[in-house]
Amino acid sequence: MYSALMSTADRLVESTRELLWERGYVGTSPKAILERAGAGQGSMYHHFKGKPDLALAAIRRTAEDVRATAEGVLGGPGTPYERIEAYLLRERDVLRGCPIGRLTMDPEVIASDELRAPVDETLDAVRELIAGIVEEGKEQGLFGPALDGEEIAATVLATVQGGYVLARASGSPAAFDAGVRGLLSLLAPPA
Amino acid sequence: MYSALMSTADRLVESTRELLWERGYVGTSPKAILERAGAGQGSMYHHFKGKPDLALAAIRRTAEDVRATAEGVLGGPGTPYERIEAYLLRERDVLRGCPIGRLTMDPEVIASDELRAPVDETLDAVRELIAGIVEEGKEQGLFGPALDGEEIAATVLATVQGGYVLARASGSPAAFDAGVRGLLSLLAPPA
DNA sequence: GTCTATATAAGGATAGAC
DNA sequence: GTCTATCCTTATATAGAC
Questions:
Q1: Interior CA angle at A44 toward A42 and A45, to 5°?
Q2: Does B188 contact A at CB distance below 8 Å?
Q3: How far apart are CA A133 and CA A76, in angstroms?
Q4: Among A21, A75, A160, B43, which is most buried by a count of CB atoms within 10 Å?
Protein backbone atom coordinates (compact mmCIF):
# COMPACT_ATOMS: atom_id res chain seq x y z
CA MET A 1 0.00 0.00 0.00
CA TYR A 2 1.37 3.37 -1.05
CA SER A 3 1.04 7.02 -0.20
CA ALA A 4 -2.18 8.66 -1.26
CA LEU A 5 0.03 11.24 -2.88
CA MET A 6 0.85 8.78 -5.65
CA SER A 7 -1.50 8.42 -8.55
CA THR A 8 -3.31 5.13 -8.94
CA ALA A 9 -1.35 4.40 -12.09
CA ASP A 10 1.93 4.97 -10.25
CA ARG A 11 0.85 2.79 -7.36
CA LEU A 12 0.03 0.02 -9.80
CA VAL A 13 3.44 0.30 -11.43
CA GLU A 14 5.21 0.35 -8.08
CA SER A 15 3.47 -2.71 -6.72
CA THR A 16 4.10 -4.51 -10.00
CA ARG A 17 7.78 -3.67 -9.76
CA GLU A 18 7.96 -5.15 -6.28
CA LEU A 19 6.09 -8.30 -7.22
CA LEU A 20 8.14 -8.86 -10.37
CA TRP A 21 11.24 -8.66 -8.21
CA GLU A 22 9.90 -11.03 -5.58
CA ARG A 23 8.01 -13.50 -7.74
CA GLY A 24 8.79 -12.91 -11.41
CA TYR A 25 6.26 -12.45 -14.18
CA VAL A 26 4.61 -15.87 -14.17
CA GLY A 27 4.39 -15.74 -10.37
CA THR A 28 2.67 -12.36 -10.29
CA SER A 29 -1.10 -12.10 -10.65
CA PRO A 30 -3.17 -9.01 -11.36
CA LYS A 31 -5.05 -9.75 -8.15
CA ALA A 32 -1.87 -9.56 -6.07
CA ILE A 33 -0.91 -6.32 -7.79
CA LEU A 34 -4.29 -4.75 -7.11
CA GLU A 35 -4.26 -5.74 -3.46
CA ARG A 36 -0.81 -4.28 -2.92
CA ALA A 37 -1.68 -1.10 -4.76
CA GLY A 38 -4.99 -0.72 -3.01
CA ALA A 39 -6.81 -0.43 -6.31
CA GLY A 40 -9.69 -2.22 -7.99
CA GLN A 41 -9.90 -4.18 -11.22
CA GLY A 42 -11.37 -1.27 -13.09
CA SER A 43 -8.43 1.03 -12.36
CA MET A 44 -5.90 -1.38 -13.70
CA TYR A 45 -7.71 -2.05 -16.97
CA HIS A 46 -8.42 1.63 -17.37
CA HIS A 47 -4.74 2.63 -17.16
CA PHE A 48 -3.20 -0.45 -18.76
CA LYS A 49 -4.20 -2.85 -21.49
CA GLY A 50 -3.53 -5.86 -19.24
CA LYS A 51 -0.85 -7.67 -17.32
CA PRO A 52 1.79 -7.58 -20.08
CA ASP A 53 1.30 -3.86 -20.61
CA LEU A 54 1.58 -3.10 -16.91
CA ALA A 55 4.59 -5.37 -16.57
CA LEU A 56 6.30 -3.58 -19.43
CA ALA A 57 5.85 -0.23 -17.71
CA ALA A 58 7.19 -1.69 -14.48
CA ILE A 59 10.19 -3.34 -16.12
CA ARG A 60 11.09 -0.15 -17.95
CA ARG A 61 11.09 1.82 -14.73
CA THR A 62 13.20 -0.76 -12.94
CA ALA A 63 15.60 -0.91 -15.88
CA GLU A 64 16.10 2.84 -15.64
CA ASP A 65 16.82 2.55 -11.92
CA VAL A 66 19.33 -0.23 -12.28
CA ARG A 67 21.11 1.56 -15.06
CA ALA A 68 21.26 4.85 -13.17
CA THR A 69 22.67 3.16 -10.09
CA ALA A 70 25.38 1.43 -12.10
CA GLU A 71 26.26 4.64 -13.93
CA GLY A 72 26.50 6.44 -10.62
CA VAL A 73 28.97 4.00 -9.11
CA LEU A 74 31.01 3.28 -12.23
CA GLY A 75 31.21 6.95 -13.09
CA GLY A 76 32.52 7.87 -9.66
CA PRO A 77 36.04 8.93 -8.73
CA GLY A 78 39.10 6.72 -8.60
CA THR A 79 41.26 4.59 -10.83
CA PRO A 80 39.63 2.13 -13.21
CA TYR A 81 40.35 -0.67 -10.74
CA GLU A 82 38.81 1.32 -7.92
CA ARG A 83 35.66 2.07 -9.90
CA ILE A 84 35.14 -1.60 -10.72
CA GLU A 85 35.87 -2.44 -7.11
CA ALA A 86 33.29 0.11 -5.99
CA TYR A 87 30.73 -1.45 -8.32
CA LEU A 88 31.42 -4.94 -7.00
CA LEU A 89 31.45 -3.92 -3.35
CA ARG A 90 28.52 -1.53 -3.35
CA GLU A 91 25.71 -2.11 -0.89
CA ARG A 92 23.29 -4.67 -2.27
CA ASP A 93 20.29 -6.51 -0.96
CA VAL A 94 21.99 -9.73 -2.03
CA LEU A 95 19.28 -12.21 -1.09
CA ARG A 96 16.68 -10.33 -3.11
CA GLY A 97 18.82 -10.65 -6.19
CA CYS A 98 18.87 -8.37 -9.22
CA PRO A 99 15.42 -7.11 -10.23
CA ILE A 100 16.46 -7.13 -13.86
CA GLY A 101 18.64 -10.24 -14.00
CA ARG A 102 16.01 -12.41 -12.33
CA LEU A 103 13.62 -11.72 -15.20
CA THR A 104 15.87 -13.71 -17.53
CA MET A 105 14.69 -16.88 -15.79
CA ASP A 106 11.09 -16.07 -16.58
CA PRO A 107 9.79 -18.00 -19.57
CA GLU A 108 7.19 -15.41 -20.53
CA VAL A 109 9.66 -12.53 -20.35
CA ILE A 110 12.13 -14.40 -22.53
CA ALA A 111 9.37 -15.37 -24.96
CA SER A 112 8.38 -11.73 -25.46
CA ASP A 113 10.76 -9.49 -27.38
CA GLU A 114 9.03 -6.48 -25.92
CA LEU A 115 9.45 -7.53 -22.28
CA ARG A 116 12.97 -8.83 -22.83
CA ALA A 117 14.24 -5.70 -24.59
CA PRO A 118 14.66 -3.47 -21.52
CA VAL A 119 16.33 -6.34 -19.69
CA ASP A 120 18.79 -6.88 -22.50
CA GLU A 121 19.48 -3.18 -22.97
CA THR A 122 20.17 -2.63 -19.29
CA LEU A 123 22.65 -5.45 -18.90
CA ASP A 124 24.28 -4.49 -22.15
CA ALA A 125 24.65 -0.87 -21.13
CA VAL A 126 26.32 -1.79 -17.84
CA ARG A 127 28.59 -4.19 -19.70
CA GLU A 128 29.69 -1.47 -22.08
CA LEU A 129 30.41 0.89 -19.21
CA ILE A 130 32.64 -1.67 -17.54
CA ALA A 131 34.31 -2.58 -20.82
CA GLY A 132 35.29 1.04 -21.35
CA ILE A 133 36.73 1.27 -17.85
CA VAL A 134 38.81 -1.85 -18.40
CA GLU A 135 40.20 -0.48 -21.64
CA GLU A 136 41.06 2.71 -19.82
CA GLY A 137 42.84 0.66 -17.16
CA LYS A 138 44.83 -1.18 -19.79
CA GLU A 139 46.08 2.12 -21.21
CA GLN A 140 47.21 3.09 -17.75
CA GLY A 141 48.99 -0.23 -17.33
CA LEU A 142 46.68 -1.22 -14.47
CA PHE A 143 45.46 -4.30 -16.31
CA GLY A 144 47.56 -6.59 -18.49
CA PRO A 145 47.41 -6.09 -22.26
CA ALA A 146 46.20 -9.68 -22.62
CA LEU A 147 42.86 -8.77 -21.07
CA ASP A 148 39.94 -7.91 -23.31
CA GLY A 149 37.61 -5.17 -22.13
CA GLU A 150 34.42 -6.78 -23.39
CA GLU A 151 35.34 -10.14 -21.97
CA ILE A 152 36.32 -8.87 -18.54
CA ALA A 153 33.15 -6.79 -18.44
CA ALA A 154 31.12 -9.92 -19.09
CA THR A 155 33.04 -11.72 -16.35
CA VAL A 156 32.41 -8.92 -13.87
CA LEU A 157 28.70 -8.75 -14.61
CA ALA A 158 28.36 -12.54 -14.63
CA THR A 159 30.09 -12.79 -11.27
CA VAL A 160 27.53 -10.41 -9.80
CA GLN A 161 24.52 -12.09 -11.41
CA GLY A 162 25.82 -15.55 -10.54
CA GLY A 163 26.70 -14.41 -7.04
CA TYR A 164 23.02 -13.77 -6.44
CA VAL A 165 22.27 -17.33 -7.54
CA LEU A 166 24.78 -18.83 -5.11
CA ALA A 167 23.61 -16.60 -2.28
CA ARG A 168 19.94 -17.40 -2.74
CA ALA A 169 20.70 -21.12 -2.96
CA SER A 170 22.46 -21.07 0.38
CA GLY A 171 20.22 -18.50 2.03
CA SER A 172 23.23 -16.33 2.87
CA PRO A 173 25.11 -13.50 1.17
CA ALA A 174 28.45 -15.18 1.99
CA ALA A 175 28.86 -16.89 -1.38
CA PHE A 176 28.18 -13.63 -3.22
CA ASP A 177 30.89 -11.91 -1.20
CA ALA A 178 33.32 -14.76 -1.75
CA GLY A 179 32.84 -14.65 -5.51
CA VAL A 180 33.40 -10.92 -5.57
CA ARG A 181 36.54 -11.16 -3.46
CA GLY A 182 37.84 -13.91 -5.70
CA LEU A 183 37.30 -11.78 -8.78
CA LEU A 184 38.94 -8.76 -7.17
CA SER A 185 41.98 -10.85 -6.25
CA LEU A 186 42.27 -11.90 -9.89
CA LEU A 187 41.89 -8.34 -11.15
CA ALA A 188 44.15 -6.72 -8.57
CA PRO A 189 47.00 -4.76 -10.10
CA PRO A 190 50.38 -6.22 -9.06
CA ALA A 191 51.44 -4.53 -5.82
CA MET B 1 5.51 -37.97 -24.13
CA TYR B 2 7.89 -40.77 -23.17
CA SER B 3 8.63 -44.34 -24.05
CA ALA B 4 6.10 -46.87 -22.91
CA LEU B 5 9.04 -48.67 -21.36
CA MET B 6 9.16 -46.07 -18.61
CA SER B 7 6.89 -46.44 -15.63
CA THR B 8 4.19 -43.85 -15.16
CA ALA B 9 5.93 -42.55 -12.06
CA ASP B 10 9.16 -42.12 -14.00
CA ARG B 11 7.38 -40.36 -16.85
CA LEU B 12 5.85 -37.97 -14.35
CA VAL B 13 9.24 -37.20 -12.85
CA GLU B 14 10.83 -36.71 -16.25
CA SER B 15 8.19 -34.34 -17.52
CA THR B 16 8.35 -32.42 -14.25
CA ARG B 17 12.13 -32.11 -14.63
CA GLU B 18 11.71 -30.65 -18.10
CA LEU B 19 9.02 -28.21 -17.07
CA LEU B 20 10.91 -27.05 -13.98
CA TRP B 21 13.86 -26.32 -16.23
CA GLU B 22 11.79 -24.47 -18.80
CA ARG B 23 9.29 -22.67 -16.58
CA GLY B 24 10.34 -23.00 -12.94
CA TYR B 25 8.16 -24.18 -10.08
CA VAL B 26 5.56 -21.42 -10.04
CA GLY B 27 5.26 -21.63 -13.81
CA THR B 28 4.64 -25.36 -13.86
CA SER B 29 1.13 -26.72 -13.40
CA PRO B 30 0.10 -30.29 -12.62
CA LYS B 31 -2.00 -30.17 -15.75
CA ALA B 32 1.00 -29.41 -17.94
CA ILE B 33 2.96 -32.20 -16.28
CA LEU B 34 0.19 -34.71 -16.87
CA GLU B 35 -0.21 -33.77 -20.51
CA ARG B 36 3.49 -34.13 -21.19
CA ALA B 37 3.70 -37.41 -19.31
CA GLY B 38 0.59 -38.77 -20.97
CA ALA B 39 -0.92 -39.61 -17.61
CA GLY B 40 -4.15 -38.77 -15.81
CA GLN B 41 -4.82 -36.95 -12.58
CA GLY B 42 -5.28 -40.18 -10.69
CA SER B 43 -1.81 -41.48 -11.54
CA MET B 44 -0.10 -38.40 -10.27
CA TYR B 45 -1.90 -38.32 -6.95
CA HIS B 46 -1.44 -42.04 -6.56
CA HIS B 47 2.35 -41.88 -6.89
CA PHE B 48 2.93 -38.47 -5.29
CA LYS B 49 1.34 -36.48 -2.53
CA GLY B 50 0.98 -33.43 -4.77
CA LYS B 51 2.91 -30.88 -6.76
CA PRO B 52 5.55 -30.15 -4.09
CA ASP B 53 6.23 -33.85 -3.57
CA LEU B 54 6.62 -34.51 -7.28
CA ALA B 55 8.78 -31.44 -7.70
CA LEU B 56 11.04 -32.62 -4.89
CA ALA B 57 11.58 -35.95 -6.63
CA ALA B 58 12.31 -34.16 -9.90
CA ILE B 59 14.72 -31.67 -8.34
CA ARG B 60 16.60 -34.45 -6.56
CA ARG B 61 17.11 -36.33 -9.80
CA THR B 62 18.28 -33.23 -11.63
CA ALA B 63 20.60 -32.36 -8.75
CA GLU B 64 22.22 -35.77 -9.04
CA ASP B 65 22.70 -35.30 -12.78
CA VAL B 66 24.25 -31.89 -12.48
CA ARG B 67 26.57 -33.04 -9.76
CA ALA B 68 27.66 -36.15 -11.66
CA THR B 69 28.39 -34.11 -14.79
CA ALA B 70 30.52 -31.64 -12.85
CA GLU B 71 32.38 -34.42 -11.06
CA GLY B 72 33.06 -36.08 -14.38
CA VAL B 73 34.62 -33.02 -15.96
CA LEU B 74 36.44 -31.69 -12.91
CA GLY B 75 37.78 -35.13 -12.05
CA GLY B 76 39.20 -35.63 -15.54
CA PRO B 77 42.84 -35.56 -16.60
CA GLY B 78 45.09 -32.52 -16.82
CA THR B 79 46.57 -29.83 -14.65
CA PRO B 80 44.35 -27.96 -12.19
CA TYR B 81 44.10 -25.09 -14.67
CA GLU B 82 43.14 -27.47 -17.45
CA ARG B 83 40.44 -29.13 -15.39
CA ILE B 84 38.84 -25.81 -14.52
CA GLU B 85 39.16 -24.79 -18.15
CA ALA B 86 37.44 -28.02 -19.20
CA TYR B 87 34.61 -27.29 -16.79
CA LEU B 88 34.17 -23.76 -18.10
CA LEU B 89 34.38 -24.76 -21.75
CA ARG B 90 32.33 -27.91 -21.68
CA GLU B 91 29.40 -28.23 -24.04
CA ARG B 92 26.36 -26.50 -22.57
CA ASP B 93 22.91 -25.67 -23.76
CA VAL B 94 23.57 -22.10 -22.73
CA LEU B 95 20.21 -20.56 -23.59
CA ARG B 96 18.37 -23.13 -21.49
CA GLY B 97 20.39 -22.15 -18.45
CA CYS B 98 21.25 -24.29 -15.45
CA PRO B 99 18.37 -26.54 -14.36
CA ILE B 100 19.47 -26.19 -10.75
CA GLY B 101 20.62 -22.58 -10.65
CA ARG B 102 17.40 -21.28 -12.25
CA LEU B 103 15.43 -22.65 -9.31
CA THR B 104 17.02 -20.07 -7.03
CA MET B 105 14.89 -17.41 -8.71
CA ASP B 106 11.72 -19.28 -7.83
CA PRO B 107 10.01 -17.81 -4.77
CA GLU B 108 8.34 -21.08 -3.75
CA VAL B 109 11.56 -23.06 -4.01
CA ILE B 110 13.41 -20.52 -1.91
CA ALA B 111 10.58 -20.43 0.62
CA SER B 112 10.75 -24.19 1.12
CA ASP B 113 13.76 -25.60 2.95
CA GLU B 114 12.99 -29.01 1.50
CA LEU B 115 12.95 -27.88 -2.13
CA ARG B 116 15.91 -25.57 -1.67
CA ALA B 117 18.14 -28.17 0.02
CA PRO B 118 19.11 -30.18 -3.08
CA VAL B 119 19.79 -26.94 -4.95
CA ASP B 120 22.05 -25.67 -2.20
CA GLU B 121 23.84 -28.99 -1.78
CA THR B 122 24.54 -29.32 -5.49
CA LEU B 123 26.04 -25.88 -5.94
CA ASP B 124 27.98 -26.29 -2.73
CA ALA B 125 29.42 -29.64 -3.80
CA VAL B 126 30.62 -28.26 -7.12
CA ARG B 127 32.09 -25.28 -5.34
CA GLU B 128 34.05 -27.53 -3.00
CA LEU B 129 35.38 -29.57 -5.89
CA ILE B 130 36.66 -26.46 -7.63
CA ALA B 131 38.08 -25.07 -4.40
CA GLY B 132 40.15 -28.24 -3.92
CA ILE B 133 41.47 -28.02 -7.46
CA VAL B 134 42.50 -24.39 -6.97
CA GLU B 135 44.35 -25.29 -3.78
CA GLU B 136 46.09 -28.07 -5.65
CA GLY B 137 47.07 -25.60 -8.34
CA LYS B 138 48.49 -23.22 -5.77
CA GLU B 139 50.74 -25.96 -4.41
CA GLN B 140 52.01 -26.55 -7.92
CA GLY B 141 52.66 -22.86 -8.36
CA LEU B 142 50.07 -22.62 -11.14
CA PHE B 143 48.02 -20.05 -9.22
CA GLY B 144 49.40 -17.23 -7.13
CA PRO B 145 49.54 -17.72 -3.36
CA ALA B 146 47.31 -14.68 -2.92
CA LEU B 147 44.34 -16.58 -4.38
CA ASP B 148 41.90 -18.26 -2.04
CA GLY B 149 40.48 -21.60 -3.19
CA GLU B 150 37.01 -21.03 -1.81
CA GLU B 151 36.80 -17.54 -3.23
CA ILE B 152 38.02 -18.49 -6.70
CA ALA B 153 35.63 -21.42 -6.72
CA ALA B 154 32.76 -19.05 -5.98
CA THR B 155 33.95 -16.77 -8.77
CA VAL B 156 34.12 -19.63 -11.25
CA LEU B 157 30.67 -20.93 -10.39
CA ALA B 158 29.19 -17.43 -10.33
CA THR B 159 30.65 -16.67 -13.75
CA VAL B 160 28.90 -19.72 -15.15
CA GLN B 161 25.58 -19.02 -13.44
CA GLY B 162 25.72 -15.35 -14.32
CA GLY B 163 26.81 -16.17 -17.85
CA TYR B 164 23.47 -17.90 -18.34
CA VAL B 165 21.71 -14.74 -17.20
CA LEU B 166 23.56 -12.56 -19.71
CA ALA B 167 23.05 -15.05 -22.51
CA ARG B 168 19.33 -15.40 -21.91
CA ALA B 169 18.92 -11.63 -21.71
CA SER B 170 20.50 -11.16 -25.11
CA GLY B 171 19.10 -14.30 -26.69
CA SER B 172 22.58 -15.45 -27.66
CA PRO B 173 25.30 -17.56 -26.03
CA ALA B 174 27.93 -14.96 -26.92
CA ALA B 175 27.91 -13.19 -23.57
CA PHE B 176 28.32 -16.49 -21.72
CA ASP B 177 31.35 -17.31 -23.84
CA ALA B 178 32.81 -13.85 -23.35
CA GLY B 179 32.51 -14.10 -19.57
CA VAL B 180 34.19 -17.49 -19.56
CA ARG B 181 37.04 -16.32 -21.77
CA GLY B 182 37.51 -13.28 -19.56
CA LEU B 183 37.74 -15.45 -16.48
CA LEU B 184 40.18 -17.84 -18.15
CA SER B 185 42.40 -14.93 -19.15
CA LEU B 186 42.47 -13.83 -15.52
CA LEU B 187 43.23 -17.32 -14.27
CA ALA B 188 45.79 -18.19 -16.94
CA PRO B 189 49.17 -19.17 -15.52
CA PRO B 190 51.89 -16.75 -16.68
CA ALA B 191 53.27 -18.05 -19.95
C1' DG C 1 -11.48 7.19 -13.13
C1' DT C 2 -13.10 3.79 -10.05
C1' DC C 3 -16.21 0.24 -8.45
C1' DT C 4 -18.90 -4.02 -8.58
C1' DA C 5 -20.66 -7.71 -11.16
C1' DT C 6 -19.92 -11.34 -14.22
C1' DA C 7 -17.43 -14.79 -17.33
C1' DT C 8 -14.19 -18.41 -18.90
C1' DA C 9 -10.37 -20.85 -18.10
C1' DA C 10 -6.74 -22.80 -15.31
C1' DG C 11 -4.61 -24.29 -10.78
C1' DG C 12 -4.59 -27.74 -7.46
C1' DA C 13 -6.73 -31.42 -5.20
C1' DT C 14 -10.30 -35.20 -3.68
C1' DA C 15 -13.70 -39.12 -4.47
C1' DG C 16 -14.98 -43.04 -6.17
C1' DA C 17 -15.65 -46.17 -10.21
C1' DC C 18 -13.13 -49.59 -12.78
C1' DG D 1 -2.87 -48.21 -10.70
C1' DT D 2 -5.50 -45.49 -13.70
C1' DC D 3 -9.59 -42.94 -15.20
C1' DT D 4 -13.43 -39.67 -14.90
C1' DA D 5 -16.19 -36.68 -12.27
C1' DT D 6 -16.41 -33.10 -9.24
C1' DC D 7 -14.87 -29.36 -6.13
C1' DC D 8 -13.20 -24.82 -4.67
C1' DT D 9 -10.01 -21.18 -5.59
C1' DT D 10 -7.38 -18.19 -8.42
C1' DA D 11 -6.02 -15.99 -13.01
C1' DT D 12 -7.21 -12.84 -16.38
C1' DA D 13 -10.40 -10.11 -18.56
C1' DT D 14 -14.91 -7.65 -19.93
C1' DA D 15 -19.30 -4.93 -19.01
C1' DG D 16 -21.62 -1.57 -17.25
C1' DA D 17 -23.07 1.32 -13.20
C1' DC D 18 -21.61 5.45 -10.73
A1: 70
A2: yes
A3: 11
A4: A160
Report d(CA B141, CA B170) in Å as an integer. Answer: 38
More confident residue, A189 or A166: A166
Helix (H, G, I), strand (E, B) or coil at B123: helix
Domains of chain B, with CATH numbers?
Answer: 57-187 (1.10.357.10)
Q: What is the mean pLDDT of chain A?
A: 96
State the pLDDT at residue B3.
55
Q: Which residue of A has its CA nearest to B22?
A: A107
**Alpha helices, DSSP H only, in chain B?**
8-23, 30-37, 41-47, 51-74, 80-89, 107-111, 113-139, 149-170, 174-187
Would you say the C-beta of B107 is within 7 Å of strand D? no
Q: What is the pTM of this model?
A: 0.97
CA of B2 to C1' of D14 (A): 40
**Cα-Cα-Cα-Cα dihedral of A160, A164, A169, A174, to 10°?**
70
- A161–B101 C-beta distance less than 8 A: no
